[in-house]
Specification:
By secondary structure, the chain is α/β, with parallel strands linked by helices. It has helices at residues 20-28, 53-66, 80-89, 123-129, 137-146, 152-156, 180-187, 214-217, 219-232, and strands spanning 6-9, 33-35, 71-76, 94-100, 117-118, 150-151, 171-175, 203-207.
Length: 237
Amino acid sequence: MATPPIVLVPGFWLGAWAWDEVAGALRADGHDVTAITLPGLESADADRSSITVSDHVDAICAAVEAAGAPVVLAVHSASGFSGYAASDRIPERIAAMVYVDSAPGTGAADPDFADTEKPLPPQQDLEAEENFDGLSAGQIETFRRRAVPVPGGVLREGVSLSNDARLDVPTTMICTGYTSQEYQEAVKEGFAWLGGLTEVRDVTWVDLPTSHWPMWSRPKELAGIIGDVANSHATGD
């Protein structure tokens, strides 16, 4: 049986490097894995002035199509917006979606954001918004040192969704910073980043209690869940 290739997409401020431990564990189990860095997040010196979320969608679609077979597409955090848009554009190329402390976002992440870029906030501000459970001081230091500002256009722009085939793409929600019950309660509040959960038809909920960055705080367990999703969509002899 052949398992689908796996494409890993990091969230805000991160590059492909953020997935190193997870990708290594998946490859050790025999999976074909590609982790990508989204446009504008290559380095602190990259030109982010004209990058929009559409560029991120393009980059994800290019990685998916380059895989040569329908993939398991795993997206982290705010990349749920661009990942969900990719599933709208090329649903036939996606065997399954995996949202890692993320969700299928609709509309714009922050339509009123006016700046050219959004740097990583001060630690105390970030801790007020996100769960840091299980992260070491060294991991947090590495995060802050390697973080790259997010292009402002990525926050401001929304992507139109029109292909209902995206609604039937099997979806796994890996809930880490918040529980699956908290996620499902939050959907009722109408947040844009959870918008797709009101419409996708095939959702599996998995709780993995840890930080908002489980690729660092529980990488082996996260790799196991993503690998299980890939295994469940194996095809052929």
